[in-house]
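[job 4471] stage=fold_predict status=RUNNING
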Amino acid sequence: MLPPLFLILRLTTMYRLWLLMSLSVFNAHADATADPKMAWIETSEIDGRLHVQAYVKSPKVAELEYDLISAKSGRSGTSLTKQAGKVNAEAGQTYPLTKLRLGLAKEDTYRLTLNVYEKGKLIAEDTVVFP
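[job 4471] inference complete, writing structure tokens
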């Protein structure tokens, strides 16, 4: 039978290993979580059309890439469109990214998703469902 001190040391080592593994998983998740306040979508309905404007505000100087995806479902079927581009952002500045003008029928539903990337890593996102 092992002495109690050895068991205590062994458990402590195992606990440390578990804690390190748990923290590394948490940090990986935190890195993958995008900042919702950095990018946003504004919508308005004007003359039977859905007007969409996407924005980004970077906390630092960065070359950013973005895509805005519009998924429509309605009586006439489904459609998917995507617009993408790049912006050289200065710290603290707000940049309009892209505009969409979408036709609306009474039963249409749009899901708009904006993704912003820096060096291929998702750093911000926003999703709006209309109506």
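[job 4471] summary: The helical segments are 4-32.
[job 4471] exit 0
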